[in-house]
Each structure stands twice: as C-alpha cells, then as structure tokens.
Amino acid sequence: MIRTVSYPFVRGWRNLRQTPVLSLATILSIAVALGIVALFAVLLINGQQVAERWRQDVRMVAYLQQVPDATELDLWRTEMLRLPGVAAVDYTSPAQAMNDFRARLSRRADLLDGLPEDFLPASLVLKVAADFKNTDEIDALAGRLRNDPRVADLRYGRQWLERVSALTAVIKLVGGTLGVFLLCAAVLIVANTIRLTLYSRRDELEIMALVGASPYYLKTPYLVEGMIQGGCGGVLALASVALLFQTVLVANLSILHSLLGIGEVLFLPWQWQVMVMVSGVVLGLLGSSFALRRLLRK
Amino acid sequence: MVRLYNVCKSYPGNSAVLDDISFTVAKGEFTYLTGPSGAGKSTLLQLVYAAQRVQRGQILVNGQNVTRMTERRLSLLRRSLGIVFQDFRLLPFRTVFENVGLPLEVQGVGRREIAARVNEQLRFVGLQDKLQRRPPELSGGEQQRVAIARALVVDPVLVLADEPTGNLDAATSRDILKLFTHINEQGVTILMASHDRLLMRRYARREIALADGRVSPPDNNLS
Ligand SMILES: Nc1ncnc2c1ncn2[C@@H]1O[C@H](COP(=O)(O)OP(=O)(O)O)[C@@H](O)[C@H]1O
Ligand SMILES: [Mg+2]
Q1: Do the Cβ atoms of A212 and B108 come within 8 Å?
Q2: Ligand 1 — pocket residues by CB below 6 A?
Q3: For B34-46, what is each residue's pLDDT tens digit?
C-alpha cells in the first residue's frame, strides 16, 4: 500500500534526475514566469500601500497670511471645523514649525541658527474626514480654502494621490497581461518537457501498458514530475524575488516611502507566498496533464 | 476463452490483413495459429490483447469484449494474460530479474513476492544464473526465454505466444513446447502463433491456419 502511494513520487523524482538539464530549464522558465508575476505583486502591494495610506490620511496645510492671536485662532478653528469634510484642525505656530524643521534637519540644524523665530509662517493642518475621500470633494474643499483671504498658500498631495493611483493601475495592467502570457508559456514549456520525456520512454510505457499497468500507474509519475518542477519553479521564483527585494527594492522604495511618511516597504504576505508556490505546482500539473492527454491514445 | 466474430483489420494504405475472421478457442485448449509470414498472425494476436483495434467485428476474451473497453478495464484484463511478443519487448536497461518482475511490479505486488515468483519462473526457463544480466547481453534464445518467463510469471489464464520458438534451436524449442504443454495441463489456455511445421507435427494440436486474410482449412479440431 505504501508502495502504491510512494511509487509515483519515486518514479517522478527518478525521471527528473534522468533529464537534469531539461528539468532545470523547465524549472527556470516556471521560475521566471512566476517571479515576474510575483515582482509585479510586490510593486502593486507597495503602490497600494502608498495610495491607501494617503487616502486614510489626507491632510491639507493652509499657510496663514499672518500669525493669529488666541481669540482669532479659536474663531478660525471653529469656522473651519464647520466646513464639510474637515475632521480636525491643528494649529502650528511659527516657533513650532521652526522646531519641527530643526528636528528634521537634525545634525544640520545649526543652519537655522541666525534666523528669526517667526521666519516660517503659521499654519493650520486640516485633517479630512474619512468619509470624504474622493478627489472631487477634496478639490471643492481646497477651492474654498484657497479663496479664503486669510490663507496665503494651500498644500495637499492631490497630484501624488493621482499619480500613485495611476501607477498601481498600470502595474496591475502590465503585470496582469504579462503574467497571463508568461504563465501560459510556462504551462506549454512544462507540457513540452513532459512530452519529450514521454517520447523517450514510449517503448517502456507501451510495454508496461501491455503487461497490465493501469493508466493511473503510467500517468501519475509524470504528473508528479510536472508538479515537482512547478513547485521548484515556484520556490525559486519566490527566493529570487525575495533576494531582489532585499538588495534593490527595499533601498529604492524606502526613499519614496519615507518621503511619504509610510513605515515599511512590504514583501508579499505569507498567503501570497504560499499562492506563488501553489501556482507553481498547479502550472506543473496543468502542463503535464496537457502532455498526457494524448498518451496511450494511439 | 477467446472468441472472434467477423473480425476485419487493415492497416492504412494496405488491403485487408484480416478479412471476416471468426473462431473460438475454448478454455483449456492449446491451439496453434499458423500461416505464412505476413499472413496476419501477429496482427490477430495484437487484436486479442487489444494493442490494435479492429475495424469491424467483436473479440471476447474471457467473456469480456476487448473491442469496447476502457484503458483501465483493459489493463485489468491484461493482468490475467501472458503475452510473448514476437520481438520480445524487453526493457534493455533493466535486468532480467526486473524485466520478468515487471508485470507484477505494475500490479503493485510486494517486493518479496516478486522475488520469489521471478526466481521460480527463471528456474523454470533455465535462466536462474542470469538474473542480473541485461537483455542486450543475452543471446536471442535467452531473450526469448526471458520473454516467456515474463509472460508466465503472472500465472495467466490465457497465454498468447507469438512465435515463441522462433529464435530457439530444435532442442530448446522442444523444451519450451514441453513447458507450454505442462502449463496447459494445469488448465491454462494457449494460443500460439508459429510456422515451425516440424515442431507442430511433433506436438500435434488444433491449428487455425490463416491465409489471404481468412481462416483456411485445416481447422482440425483436435482437442
Ligand atoms: N503496424 C503495422 N502497420 C502497417 N502494416 C502492418 C503493421 N503490422 C503488420 N503490418 C502488415 O500486416 C501484414 C500482416 O503482418 P503480421 O500480422 O505481422 O503477419 P505475421 O505475423 O503472420 O507474419 C503484413 O503485410 C505486414 O506488412
Ligand atoms: Mg508475426
């Protein structure tokens, strides 16, 4: 019984070892296909993180013409809070702004030494309500604030939001299209490898069939061979993307991320990692069953 | 055990090899299939174990219609057949032991039982000292005996042998015939293609003679 279960694995593994170059080429092509898809997934995850973060934390900074006194400030604050979509209003005094700037410059803070305390303008930081997140509404709010005579300048990351959204859309499109093509190619490559193995063993397979081997017995080793190739390809894809991620992506993406105040650059969550490997196995299985469809159907 | 009804078979681009063949081989019978080279003896046997498909007609083997059978059912049926191929069909990279054990291996028989039955069978055909050789290292006659051992190792109910003495000298041929006679006496049905007149005269049996795609007399029903 144990033999019946382990047999296809033993045979599948033996097949692999008997054609190492071919198998390796197959594994590599699966790895390339899955790796590219996984790479796009990493970019997508991080792009979406940026977009999402921005969406959850839309702030507008209104730089004020003059520094308000306490009563003015209270008045303005309540007035702005009454505007649709404004969730919170925080005041930053010129001194505070200077302190923040100093902190950001850290070691080079001495550059600011000669400057007057009110060198930087006072500002109101408006937090936009969570249910007020589409760009049209935000634009309308921004328009009202800009027309306010007390506001000297208004800053918010509208363009960023749009660019990031556009970027994630492009990543999805390119990654998806390329992915479908590459995955189909990988299936065909597996099918071809298995077909070659089948061809080189057609005598053996025929003899085995003639002495009573069931189709199941004949086919499963090749299905397993395809699955092993696919699984190896999946693992290799994941490993290469992880390596690329550690060496290149983290460094580059983290610049962008720290600019936007987002914590970490993300790798694929474990569910996705499992999915990459499972996809490899499924690709291999698909490819080999493709090749086996015509076996024994002379 | 074997029944053919109006069987027709032709290869693409050929005229009919077998044209409306009908006959019955009863259980326990030992029958020769004779005819000149190219008469269609091998083709007929291939139809019986369904390596070829008929164009027309029906073939029953042990009560089962092999002309309309799934590969899976067919594989189960073949486990009860002992087939000796004219061209042996041995696996060149496997040892004699592995070749003879193959039919048992594909059925999932355990290692120890395979070893016991293969050794017994190889003793039966006189090759017990060659088990670790590979077929290309053996003479034609020895390969033929390996093929016979592989056919008999499954304890078949029906043996289909395609010129099993074609590569053997007269003495070994007689040994093989005695061997077949011996298993036939234990109730195994045998259908054996041959054109060895001398041998068949010595061990006279019922003959089914093929000529021009048809069964020609004498179909002298001896058994
Ligand atoms: N696979 C095949 N494809 C085409 N023709 C074949 C094939 N096998 C046999 N034949 C032809 O069928 C005829 C009968 O062959 P065969 O059954 O081998 O005869 P026998 O075994 O009696 O010598 C021959 O003319 C042979 O050329
Ligand atoms: Mg022949």
Answers
A1: no
A2: B 11, 14, 17, 35, 37-43
A3: 999 999 999 999 9
Residue A40 to residue B10: CA distance in whole angstroms: 58
Q: Which residues of A touch B107 (CB under 8 A)?
A: 212
**Could you give the CA distance from residue A173 to residue A167 in angstroms, rounded to a whole number?**
10
| Partner B contacted by A211 (CB < 8 A) | yes
CA atoms within 13 A on the CB side of A37: 28
Residue A231 CB contacts under 8 Å (≥ 6 apart), including other chains: A277, A280, A281, A284
| Entry pTM | 0.74
Kindly give the pairing relationship between strand B30-34 and strand B206-211: parallel
Over residues A152-195, the pLDDT tens digits come to: 888 776 666 677 677 778 888 888 898 888 889 888 888 888 88
**What are the residues whose beta carbons fall under 8 Å from the beta carbon of A159, sequence distance 6 or more?**
none
pLDDT digits (tens, 9 = 90+) for B131-178: 999 999 999 889 999 999 999 999 999 999 999 988 788 888 888 899
Contact of A92 with A118, CB cutoff 8 Å: no
Are the beta carbons of B144 and B88 closer than 8 angstroms? yes
From the list A36, A39, A57, the residue with the least C-alpha distance to A263 is A57
DSSP code for A106: G
More confident residue, A56 or A111: A111
User: Which residues, 6+ apart, have CB-to-CB distance to B58 below 8 Å?
Assistant: B3, B4, B5, B6, B7, B65, B67
Q: Does A3 touch chain B (CB under 8 A)?
A: yes
